[in-house]
Design goal:
Elements: E1 2-3, E2 8-9, E3 12-17, H1 28-45, E4 48-55, E5 58-64, H2 71-94, E6 105-109, H3 114-125
Antiparallel strand pairs: 1-2, 3-5, 3-6, 4-5
Helix pairs in contact: 1-2
């Protein structure tokens, strides 16, 4: 469980997206570069990558985020910033740019136990917000 100034949360999102035309372009060193860039984005935005799988034709990202960020914003950040960074850094050298398909999948994951709720209520009663 994590906290911000005004919230206690446990929000995790599973986001999946594809290269444009579902081309299998994410292999070998491209995979390593994309992986590093996605971790950079998470660090810059204060997000925690729980799990990341880069397949030749799609990316699976499981990320934890504060409640102020909508899943659509997370998908847009990871897709948009990663393609800009990749293309800026590597397209001149390799000649191949990364372009993502327009859509994405976003799902939520998480489990709230009764102990978690009781702990939250108890901390509120103690004045710890």
């Amino acid at each position: 469980m994590k906290t911000t100034r005004h919230a206690t949360y446990n929000l995790s999102y599973h986001i999946v997206w594809l290269p444009k035309y579902r081309n299998s372009v994410l292999g070998n060193e491209v995979e390593d570069r994309v992986r590093r860039i996605l971790h950079e984005i998470a660090d810059e935005k204060g997000l925690d990558i729980i799990d990341l799988t880069v397949q030749p034709d799609h990316v699976h990202l499981f990320v934890s985020s504060p409640p102020k960020h909508a899943p659509s914003l997370l998908a847009n950040w990871f897709k948009g910033i990663s393609s800009r960074k990749y293309n800026h850094r590597y397209a001149d050298h390799d000649g191949e740019k990364i372009k993502w398909a327009r859509g994405y999948y976003a799902g939520t994951a998480g489990h709230v136990s009764s102990e978690t709720v009781q702990d939250y209520i108890q901390r509120q009663e103690e004045g710890d917000t």
